[in-house]
Amino acid sequence: QLIFSLLYCHVEFVWYVCVHLDLLMVYNQDKERPPSVTSQSSAIVTERLQELVRLFKDRTEKVKEKLIDPESSSEDESPSEPKPQEGKIAPKEEEHYCQMMCCKFKTMPWMRRLKKWSFPDSIDPFTNLIYVLWLFLVTLAWNWNVWLIPVRCTYPYQTPDNIYIWLVVDYLCDFIYIIDMFLFQTRLQFVRSGDIIVSICDFNPFSERMTVNKYMSFFEFNDRLEAILSKAYIYRVIRTTTYLLYSLHCNSCLYYWASDYEGIGSTRWTYTGLGNSYIRCYYFAVKTLITIGGLPHPVTLFEITFQLLNYFSGVFAFSIMIGQMRDVVGAATAGKTYYRAYMDGTIKYMNNYKISKDVQNRIKTWYEYTWKSQGMLDEQELLVQLPDKMRLDIAVDVSYSIVSKVPLFQGCDLQMIYDMLKKLRSVVYLPGDYVCKKGEIGRAMYIIKDGEVQVLGGPDGKTVLVTLRAGSVFGEISLLSVGGGNRRTADVVAHGFANLFILDKKDLNDILIHYPESQKLLRKKAKIFWHSSMQNNLCFPNENKLSQILVG
Fold it and tell me: Is the pLDDT reported for residue 167 higher than 90?
């Protein structure tokens, strides 16, 4: 195969030489041209021939290397990004600016922006932020009716003089409902037999989304808003408090209706008619539902019956609100409770076995820092509940940018890198903790996520040889045990709090079983790194090379 390739290259080279020699002879035989033109043409052809000879030599060397050592070519083969075609330059749009206060912003003219905007054919109710904002508007219209219809039915606030103001707001709310039914709800995506339906014409006009009763929009807005809030428990507390206030609101409306039925100021139990009617009745509702006491005694049978029902409903509603508030607060502090339970169990264990105070204080510090920095003690506990694809997406976002910069893994199979990302473990080290010690067997590779570590050496073992920061990698050669480099040759100590990703040797070997080509490439690179480090053990070009040499 080598002889055949070389013969093919020679034949191709001879063909190029013959073609250019013929061209040179044509130029030389042309006697009509001036001598200067002929010599210039000969120089151009000669220069072209020299360039062809150089290209031929380079190509021959590459063919030899590829045939002698096939693995060497795989190291350089990597998917290249498509280069933009020269000559095809996108037309540059005219830039427009608008000035607001003291700042200048680049923007498009409002007419052009308006022409480019179009209403979407389908809306994803779970990810579309515009739909959440629209639900907020629908919820406002729904709350207008829910809160003010009882007031207008009982209190004398709606009069012939202001009826037009009430009707304008009512018609505006109805207009919002109509737009929601025929413009938004018809475009919502939904699932039918496992398929996502996005067609604007494929909807159920009799579904609960298409009805005028918009109470479902209120609960849908709550779900969507909680999904995008970072601290949703605050909104849950506000919502539960609003439920309590609405219960008191309805009770005040009922009390005014009962007082009007009996006669305003007819008995000492009814509303006297003095002051603001809504505030006075709301005060009565608060004392009734919360059962504070000190209320005037009912006189008639209707008043006694009304007050008994009021007491029963107050106790029932108030107990429900207290239970909901307890659940909301409990869910908000569930993580903290989990952390305290682990902390208390660890302290109890250390006290039973009489662990030294210095060790106890370090363990407490580790618990506190890990909880504050990560919000959890073990990230794998959370990720294990997710599907494999989602765990991979999280791992890629968190650590791919760091792992992809490791020279040892550049050029490897991308899927192998993804499988390796899922095996990384995040570990927090306290200031002064030894990440690895000199002489121990290297069974893991370390990637610094946050913080710094120091490589110690020298005669006393305390000299700081180099400081590695976030994004640095050390210990990767020990994963492949090349050249006896599976023992650590220096101490690595955390300088301050350090958060490191750890890849165990066993996990990498389990992955490489399914990727033999990547395994060959990794072993070859590890040999190159090891031999180059042995030859240049007195001159270290950079921090990463020094960490490879000293730590393995």
Answer: yes
Residues 479, 427 contacting (CB under 8 angstroms):
no
Report the alpha-carbon distance of residue 503 to residue 369 in Å, rounded: 22
Rounded Cα–Cα distance for residues 62 and 127 (Å): 52
- The residue with tokens 């609100």 is 321
State how far the Cα of 7 lies from the Cα of 4, in Å rounded to an integer: 5
pLDDT tops 90 at residue 508: no
pLDDT value of residue 201:
53
Cβ pair 399, 449 in contact under 8 A: yes
The first and second tokens of residue 360, run together, are 């106890």
Q: How far apart are CA 232 and CA 242, in angstroms?
A: 15
Please tell me the distance from the alpha carbon of residue 480 to that of residue 548, in angstroms, as a whole number: 13
Q: Is the CA virtual torsion 503, 506, 511, 512 positive or negative?
A: positive
**What is the Cα–Cα distance from 420 to 508, expressed in whole angstroms?**
7
> In this structure, what is the dihedral angle of CA atoms 410, 413, 415, 417, given to the nearest 10 degrees?
-30
Nearest-angstrom CA–CA distance, 117 and 120: 9
Q: Considering only CA atoms, which of 265, 253, 259 is closest in space to residue 302?
A: 259
pTM over 0.85: no
Cβ atoms of 366 and 430 within 8 Å: the answer is: yes
SS3 of 227-257: HHCCCHHHHHHHHHHHHHHHHHHHHHHHHHH
Question: Between vectors from CA 118 to CA 117 and to CA 123, what angle results, nearest 5°?
Answer: 120
Residues 6+ apart with CB under 8 A from 521: 71, 74, 75, 411, 412
Residue 440: phi and psi, rounded to 5, are -80, 160
Distance CA 525, CA 503 (A): 18
CB 126 within 8 A of CB 224: yes
In angstroms, rounded to a whole number, what is the distance separating the alpha carbons of residues 181 and 254? 33
- At what angle are helices 505-512 and 516-535 packed, to 10 degrees? 130
How many residues does the structure list for the chain? Answer: 552
Phi/psi at 166 (nearest 5 deg)?
-65, -45
Where does residue 397 rank: exposed (0-12), middle (13-18), buried (19+ CB within 10 A)? exposed
232-262 vs 277-289: helix crossing angle, rounded to 10? 110
Q: 494 forms bridges with which residues in the sheet?
A: 453
Q: Among candidates 304, 313, 306, which has minimal Cα distance to 258?
A: 306
Spatial distance between the Cα atoms of 127 and 227, rounded to a whole number of angstroms: 10
- At 32, give phi and psi (nearest 5°): -75, -25
Mean pLDDT of 222-247: 88
